[in-house]
Amino acid sequence: MRSVKLSTVLMVLGLSAGVAFIGGCEQGDLATQNQVQQRRIYDLENQLQAAQMQLDQLKRKLEAAEATGGVEVETLRQKVAALEEDVAKKAALIKSMQDRLLGGSPLPVELNTALEDFAKAKPDLVEYDSSRGMVKFKSDLLFDKGSDVVTSQAAAAIKSLSEILNGEQARKFDIIVAGHTDDLPILRAETLRAHPTNRALSSHRAISVIEQMEKDGIESKRLSSRGFGEYRPLEPNAPNKKGNPKNRRVEIYIVPAGA
């Protein structure tokens, strides 16, 4: 009788261990699949940024040609239209891939939990998207208007984040800092001298965050920056170049090393 009971107990324990193992494998597979998907998204985002920069250059060339009545106006218009279509397709594909990311976080459990707690402690400044491994700072609280100098309040928050990203698990990941603006044009002469476009302002802000993270002990080789300007809004900007504060942000992506 005792041997039967003992066998039953052992069988139950074995089943429990098996379920736990399978569950652990599934979570590991999920994280791996998410990381692969993220790599594809980052590659596409690099392509999109290059295409957007090319489009900006073409538009400036077109404006100059239209002003002088150049013979290549129609050719430039066709090139601009084709590149705009390509940019729109890439942006739509990225959004679709992000929407299809599998449930759960691409990051290890302890790191993901630490980032969730970090965001919960600073809800007015920070949001965390666990499905993408992305920490979002509201740039109106990171920087003064038209400035790329990190505020003292934001510097303290970045230091707390850097401590998390210097943890044992996090050191296996690289960090991409992406700056974004709304579509408000830069008008102040002083600001224009330092940041001639919204893309420049967003890039300079991303670099400032990186420099702050370096001061906080993050290895430089783990850090890279992007500046998207007004070209990746989260929500529609108000008509007549009146912007939207939700589009003014800095996003920090924790990605597999070498992604």
Describe this structure in words.
This protein is an alpha+beta fold and 259 residues long. The chain has two domains: 1-104; 109-256, OmpA-like domain (60s Ribosomal Protein L30, Chain: A), CATH 3.30.1330.60. It has seven helices and five strands, in the order αααββααβααββ. It has helices spanning 2-68, 73-99, 109-121, 139-142, 152-165, 189-194, 198-215, and strands at residues 126-129, 134-138, 173-180, 223-227, 249-256. The protein has a five-stranded mixed β-sheet with strand order 1-2-5-3-4. α1 runs antiparallel to α2 (73-99) and α3 (109-121) packs antiparallel against α5 (152-165). The longest helix has 67 residues, at 2-68. The radius of gyration is 23 Å and the shape is globular. The protein starts with a helix and ends with a strand. Residues 1-28 have low confidence and may be disordered.
Please describe the topology of this protein.
Blueprint: H1 2-68, H2 73-99, H3 109-121, E1 126-129, E2 134-138, H4 139-142, H5 152-165, E3 173-180, H6 189-194, H7 198-215, E4 223-227, E5 249-256
Helix pairs in contact: 1-2, 3-5
Which value, in Å, is the CA radius of gyration?
23 Å
Q: How many structural domains does the protein architecture include?
A: 2
Order of helices and strands: HHHEEHHEHHEE
Which architecture name of the largest domain does CATH use?
2-Layer Sandwich
CATH class wording of the largest domain? Alpha Beta
Mean pLDDT: 83
CATH topology of the largest domain, by name, is 60s Ribosomal Protein L30, Chain: A
How helical, in percent, are the residues?
55-70%
Kindly state the number of beta strands.
5
Give the strand line-up of the largest sheet: 1-2-5-3-4
State the low-pLDDT regions, or none: 1-28
Strand % is 5-15%
